[in-house]
Amino acid sequence: MDAPSTPHDRNTAVHVEDRLISSYLGSQPSRLYRPDGDANVLPVVLYLHGGGFVAGSLDDADAIARQLVERAGVAVLSLAYSLAPRHPFPAAPEDAHAALRWLLGAAPGLNLDSRRLAVAGDDAGGNIAAAAALIARDRNGPALAAQVLIGPMLDPSMTLLGDAERLTSDLKPQTCAQRYAQYLPRSQERLHPYASPLASRRLHDLPPTYLATAKCDVLHREAEAYATALIAAGVPTQITRFDVQHEALPRHPPLLAEAAEFLRQRLHPASPSKSQPRRK
Fold first, then answer.
1. CA angle centred on 236, ends 235 and 240, rounded to 5°
2. CA 128 to chain centre
3. Is the pTM higher than 0.85?
């Protein structure tokens, strides 16, 4: 059961409400963003923050969520999913799927269009977003119109990690190893497709994908390998590598513009212009 919403008092064009929604382990905090004063039925994006599976919060995703609302003409539900090591795999992706199902039921009362639903995330949130798309496909819904993966951690085997020194990467292999150890304490789970989307051999019927990587990041090879696999499976996929480090990627202005445009095109398919979503 979701708790009453609490408006945030911020002098922006985005209306924000905190909500407690049903989840895999009971209930999870979330934050719903939408254009202030917009009474139209809007598409909605579920956003999963970064933090290496063990950290991160709704506040970390706040700037990204606001940018997507303003640029893409969508609502965004940001989820504070369960964190390891207290709640290891599969709690986080199951939380994400529960949030998608919650949106499916709550959409009419929130003036949201559950037929135009997407999932997005950065860092570990990119892994969880990709897993949520796989789960939604495997469990016959909710249907997703798009997924956006920003510098995702997709390969717990770490066989494709780049050379941190050569790449001048701010994210180190040792950090990745520590985070995966806490998220996946049982070694056999590292090959589960919901923990390691890159290991999945069934990538067909996934939603159109936007995938962004950072040039100065040990993760960019595995993310680009995932994009290649999606394309081979027939999934419409757009990928861009930006000349930044891992930590800077989610707030990199060119990335935000490109991701928002991708979402606008996928969630407002009949939009007459690039700057304005369709109004009913």
1. 115
2. 7
3. yes
